[in-house]
Design goal:
Blueprint lengths: L1 H4 L12 H13 L3 E9 L5 E11 L4 E8 L1 H18 L4 E6 L4 E4 L1 H6 L13 H4 L1 H15 L4 E8 L5 E12 L5 E10 L1 H7 L1
Antiparallel strand pairs: 1-2, 2-3, 4-5, 4-8, 6-7, 7-8
């Protein structure tokens, strides 16, 4: 404890976070009484941990009182999710999540751009609105099989808004909740039209 108390906090702070940490201290000393910020501090093993701070200044005492919470796991999880979302959003496949009523709850950028609709105008709408009644009727069996816990893969033709008939490969997988229940279906459509033309 004596060794720790003899060192300024900034010495334990990650070099990249020192300017923002000093800026937070400056605001506490001159402008605000309570301030929240994040930074990385080196632990006893030499590893950096992400901390979430809530600090308050006591001007008369020329002191800062602060509470820090270790958010390292949450930070890494957020970063992993951000990278995953970027991968999904830039995929050339049509990706979506359908709930138990076959309504869209999430779609990727490719899906939105191809149907020339913003995501907010797709979410909540039924799959039938995008594939038509005939194709939806042919998909029902696969969707029901998927909701029973089976991964499904099949190929079919799909007419798009521009009038083109495309040959698509569909993959359906059950979406499992933490308790093991199935709350919907994740669906991926890949356009194989050019590949089929080359094969012919």
């Amino acid at each position: 404890e004596e060794e720790f108390l003899s060192q300024p906090l900034i010495m334990f702070t990650h070099p990249d976070d020192r300017p923002s940490t000093l800026a937070a201290f400056h605001q506490l000393s001159e402008e605000v009484t309570v301030f929240d910020f994040h930074n990385r501090l080196r632990d006893i093993r030499g590893n950096y941990r992400w901390l979430e701070w809530r600090a308050t200044a006591q001007i008369q005492e020329q002191a800062i009182y602060a509470v820090a919470r270790d958010i390292t796991q949450r930070h890494h999880a957020t970063e992993t999710l951000r990278r995953y979302e970027q991968i999904v959003s830039t995929s050339s496949d049509f990706l979506c999540f359908l709930d138990k009523d076959e309504c869209f709850q999430a779609v990727n950028r490719r899906f939105s751009e191809f149907f020339n609709l913003p995501v907010r105008e797709i979410i909540g709408r039924h799959l039938r609105d995008f594939v038509g009644q005939n194709i939806f009727d042919s998909l029902k069996f696969h969707l029901e099989d998927c909701r029973k816990g089976h991964g499904v893969r099949f190929q079919h033709k799909l007419k798009f808004p521009d009038g083109n008939l495309r040959f698509m490969e569909a993959r359906l997988n059950p979406f499992l909740e933490h308790d093991g229940s199935i709350s919907g279906v994740t669906a991926t459509w890949r356009d194989l039209t050019e590949q089929k033309h080359l094969e012919q």
